[in-house]
Give the backbone structure.
Amino acid sequence: METLQDQIIDFDVASTTKSNSVAEIKVRQFNVLIDEPSQLGGTDQAPNPVEYILSGLAGCMHILGFKVAHELEMELTDLKINITGQLNPMKLFGMPTEDRAGYQSISISLQPETIADAQTVEQWKSIMAERSPVLDNLSRETPVEVKIG
């Protein structure tokens, strides 16, 4: 890989309405559907936005898992990731609650298939957690501007 210098890379998505609960998101050359499960008023045609957050986190940890293992010369033959997010939907539906609108907590379980020793696996996990852009966005405040137009 070429040497990276400090740079900012823009990522863009654009959403169009398919129905009250379904949006089609254009991401580069990909079209992604978003919907809600029926118990949250959707038609259950696709994952909902908060499920995509967990999916993005799992994907990021997966890619980093193999990248960091390669850098550490740690043999990694498989990686299973399970992520659970706890969310109270009351604020989403305009009901009074002290809870935040987003996840109350997120738990990541990594199951690496490796012959590496415990110290190397712990180092691998720590490096992944430090370098994950998605985990960083979830665990630290990111400035967000919401505007009309």
